[in-house]
Amino acid sequence: MLKEERLQIILKMLETNQRVTSLELSQILNVSDDTIRRDLNELDQNGLLLKVHGGAIPKSSTPYKLKERVNFAHEEKVILAQKSLEFFKDGQVIILDNGSTNMEVAKVIPLDMKLTIFTNSIPVAQILSEHPSVELFLLGGKVFKDAQTTYGHDVIEVLGQIRADLCLLGICSIHPEIGLTIPDYEECQSKRKMVEVSQKVIALVTADKIGTAENFVVCKYKDLDIMLTDGALYETLPAEYRGKGVEIK
Question: What residue ranges define each of the domains in the chain, with the CATH number in brackets?
């Protein structure tokens, strides 16, 4: 069997099963462990999967550039935004992380709700700048143009001076063992600080993020307080996500 055929089979198995092990690949493809290791390394380096101990799992299929993500799974994001309002109360200090889902959250905050919101998202700040009752702080730092977000030392320093009631965390991938992950190291550091300084952390999760992982870990899955899903995902969520101290709604 040619290498290109093996790689396609590996990716097809991963798409179907959401995880492959080196042992099963070696047996099914009738090649050595070393060959499988090289194949997985190549696919990992090309960004087609994430190599983990004993095998591989998928990477997120969500586009990374914000302008490409805005209309991706838009209906689900609107549902999640509406559900998030259950946790908002007058007088709270909230960290609203970057991301297209949190843009939808910013749009639905009631106009009479008095909140103090810190955000690293330029589009979220633009939306909330029209809100009459929100005291708004845009975290200043280096601008990550693709994601339209700020990050870096200045962002982390300001976050260190906050004790937030609530953080709505933007994520690329969520895995019950690996945790919440994203593909950019520097942005990861800002998100880790958000988790650290918040009393309650909520992830708004669309189906495409489930069972996938990127290279940089924001936090462990159990560090979440709440995972919000839409109705369809709630019904089909794998059992591995349940019973780990995270409230799923």
Answer: 3-57 (1.10.10.10), 66-248 (3.40.50.1360)
